[in-house]
Design brief:
The structure is a homodimer of 101-residue chains.
Chain A: H1 7-15, E1 21-22, E2 29-34, H2 38-55, E3 60-64, E4 67-72, H3 82-97
Antiparallel strand pairs in A: 1-2, 2-4, 3-4
Amino acid sequence: MVERLSAEARQAALAELSGWSETAGREAIARTFTFRDFNEAFGFMSRAALVAEKKDHHPEWKNVYKTVEVVLSTHDAGGVTRLDIELARAMNGIARQLGVS
Amino acid sequence: MVERLSAEARQAALAELSGWSETAGREAIARTFTFRDFNEAFGFMSRAALVAEKKDHHPEWKNVYKTVEVVLSTHDAGGVTRLDIELARAMNGIARQLGVS
């Protein structure tokens, strides 16, 4: 099983993850991405969904037109793990290719 | 511009829309779809996204693993319009093909 990161490890990882922060009230990390339109927002989601499915590690996310709010945590571990950090990093990479950094 | 439905027209439309109901606190309709897994949930979203984009009328939706919570309303009209009813009906059709009725 993948291990829950300590608060220190989580903060160190977040420091290198542009746009992500800890969520209030639960052990998770979050970022809201804002694209140009629905086409780009859903394009981002489609690419991120393939990454998530391949990793068998899935986001909680909400889409309203051009925005995508993402929350990541690892249910089985009760907190944030390297799986969340890896998925966050992959999402940033996809967003960057769409011009969102 | 597309017209906001009256409360009566909204309720009449909802009566024929399996699984949909009015949301509390705002003029909108909502349904939570539960699929077998992420693959089916995101498959549903992908097909619904194409319909939404074609109609230029988009949902608010949240996906957590195998569930998709959808809220529909027409911002410009300040309430529910035929666009929402049509999109809800299309979503039900897609879900039905995935075995969710």
